[in-house]
Amino acid sequence: MIGKWQHRWRCLRRVRVFVALGTLLVVTPCAWAQASVTLYGVIDTSVEITNPGGGWVTRMDSGAYRGSRFGMRGSEPIGDGTSILFALENGFSSANGTLATAGTLFNRQAWIGAGGPWGEVRVGQQYSPIYIPFKGEIDAFGAGTIASGLNNFSKITPYVSNAITYLLPHIAGFDATVMMALRAPGDNNGNGLAGNFETVSYRYGPLRIAYAHQQTHGSGALRANMGGVTYEIEKTTLFADWFNGAGSGASALHNDGIAVSLRYAFTVRLNASLGYAYVRDLSGKDNDADQFSAMCEYNFSKTLLFYASAGWLRNRNDATFTLRGVNVIGLPPTWPGAPVRGVQLGMIDRF
Question: Porin domain: from which residue to which, for each copy (predicted)?
């Protein structure tokens, strides 16, 4: 009798073990297998030779085309096609290893949100919707390097703190984004908000039309508008842009301008771009400027890119525009109205 019960007990224990193992094999993949965290980064280093009017200056730049950065992004499905999302991203100098913003680890992105078929919501430190990818997609130079007149003459807010963003789902060729930034403590301007940003674009075949607006408040307040049209003709892509901007205070910018450019793909790896940009001073002082540009890019591999760019910028009267990059402060003209010329050779490695 005792042996019979011992045998039954051993069988029951085996069944329980098999059930437990089966549960782990079935439940664990469903609950955790699709969650992911990705480490990524960009290292952008270039050598620039520029003459701001008083002589040629050679320097090493970081982030002239695509800001040097490293970060983490993650996604965890929670059902019905919806996932919890997050991104943490830091900017740094590949020339000397310093943080892009002293004392701030994640100066570019630090947000959490959710996304699904209904769109995407993000909360925290984020890119301005006008910055990436909007501005780079309406310019043959990707709104980067010293060759981009659009980048040199226009002004937007690149990063936004305390922001709430809604990215609408892609519908019949339309894409749109709305961002609102909450006021920081002690900022009594802005009617309860530190700023608002809106972008919308429409694509139909080879044609793309895009428009963006921003209004920020408080110190460094800026109202800006930007629009662009791109059209693809076989290996050639044409770009036409318009922009304006107005800040607060007597010395703040108050101007508008245009930029036209084209990119030609010689091969799938090699392309070249030419462009012209003009900015008009609306303050009544006629501090206008224009720029001629050229650029060449070669994709050595999926992760490695070489680029060469050049710009010739002509300031009028007391204008002080200069050649700069995405995360590069340009050399100031030697005197108000001085022309600025430069060339740049760089490489980008992605991981």
Answer: 24-317
| 227-269 tens-digit pLDDT | 999 999 999 999 999 999 999 776 678 999 999 999 999 999 9
In angstroms, the Cα distances linking 262 to 89, 240, 293 are 32, 9, 11
Q: Which amino acid is at 207?
A: L
Return the domain boundaries, the chain.
35-350
Q: Domain 35-350 maps to which CATH number in 3.40.50.970, 1.10.3720.10, 2.40.160.10, 3.40.50.720?
A: 2.40.160.10
Q: How far apart are CA 52 and CA 27, in angstroms?
A: 65
Tell me how far the alpha carbon of residue 97 is from its chain's centroid.
21
